[in-house]
Amino acid sequence: MLAQTIPETVEVTTAPTTALLIDRTCPSNASAISAAMAGAFSVLADVLVRSGLTASGPPRAIYTAMGPAEVRFTAAIPIRPVRVLDDRETGAYVGTIRGERALRFVHHGPHDALRDTYFRIEDWLRERGQLRTAADWDRFTPRWEEFLGDPDSTPPEELVTRIYLTLH
Question: Contact 103/165 with Cβ under 8 angstroms?
Fold first, then answer.
């Protein structure tokens, strides 16, 4: 039963968050998404250091469109409110991520196993009549992931990822 495999499912309301952001589009296969995300967060980490900004929360990947051919997402690192920044060289900018009412799921383990958790979430949504076809995923957009733990220093089995599905 999914409730046992994803015990940490709750409805939450997130607060607006100031963040360092960068938008990316890539093919919709797992290796391309992983590479694009790693590249985006690397750019943001560099801009964070060069600009003297301080992270104030876990990094996020906010999916704005997911199709069979491509995925669009915004990589985000929450920061303390600061001056306006628009890094033309990298495309990074400071903006506000709006607060949302969302379902929050928790994935424990390596990032490359997130797909399995999404399959379990899909089953959970189908059981509740909230998802009938793949097109119904659009109702939960934007959806995002928050990454707790640094994948470079945290053992993969100890990584935690929060998955948020927007409720409209």
Answer: yes
